[in-house]
Amino acid sequence: MEEWQISLLWAMLSLSLSFGPFVVSATVGVWYQKRLLAELATREQATMAAFGGRDPLTSVEAVLPEVPLDSGSLLLANVTIGPSWWQMLLAQLKSLVGGRLVHFDRVLEFGRREALQRLREAAQQQGWDDVVNVRLDTAVVAVNTANRSRTGAMEIFAYGTGVKRGSRTKAAPAAPSAISLSGAP
Amino acid sequence: MQPAPNLMISNTETIPGMTVVRTLGLVSGSTVRAKHVGKDIMAGLKNIVGGELKGYTELLSEARNEAMARMMQAAAGLGANAILNVRFATSSVAGGAAELFAYGTAAQVQ
Description:
The complex is a heterodimer of chains A (185) and B (110). Chain A has 185 residues and is α+β, with helices and mostly antiparallel strands. Chain A has one domain: Translation Initiation Factor IF3. Chain A has three helices and three strands, in the order H-E-H-H-E-E. In chain A, helix 1 packs across helix 3. Chain A is elongated, with a radius of gyration of 23 Å. Chain B is an alpha+beta fold. In chain B, 31% of the residues lie in helices and 41% in strands. Chain B has two helices and five strands; from the N terminus they run ββαβαββ. In chain B, strand 4 and strand 5 form a beta hairpin.
């Protein structure tokens, strides 16, 4: 092999090692995250349908004052998410001028919806009618090893109390879907 | 880790369907966890495309369960059969370590 060929190979190798992950991130990563969102939307619809077309999650303490509750138990759900390298790069460029970081918006929106969906699924699995007093918590758990100033992982933690509605109603029957304040769109 | 005692837990002011007889004071449980190097490398690779980092999700929910178990043991030690209004807090204490903290009010319910 001639000397120029070796140096060309060397240049190609170093180029693909330094830019390769970003190319993968910008192509595979974007496709992968779109697929995750689509899957999440299907799961959300399936769970809401199982709950009679309403969102079982509420951020208030009682479902409705006149609905008595039979039993309840704490439910936990969490998800750890990370923005892709491509999103981190775009965010870093955007942070030069400031303003809204739409790419991180999407990552966090996905995380919140996923955590809430897992809470719904836990409620469905355990047979609760509603989840009251839902709270969301976000924590940064790791910084990217490639660049220590960038966030690599965030944990979204959702919890609430799964409750079983009582059979007897104290007052006039109320519309069951009157409260759907929290939860994903 | 000892098995957690059987207690009723909620993050509401009462246990649905139960009456609070008396409260026994604040109970808490915490655990500090460090990340696993292998999981860290896997998470770093997964970070290229983004999405969920399953290794961390499992690690954190395991740690949170341990914090809960400690809180439940503290409550059982006070003679409680329920913990009311449970809250959680997460904080990263040092490079690569996170503290998971759970607290609530131990109570006797009927």
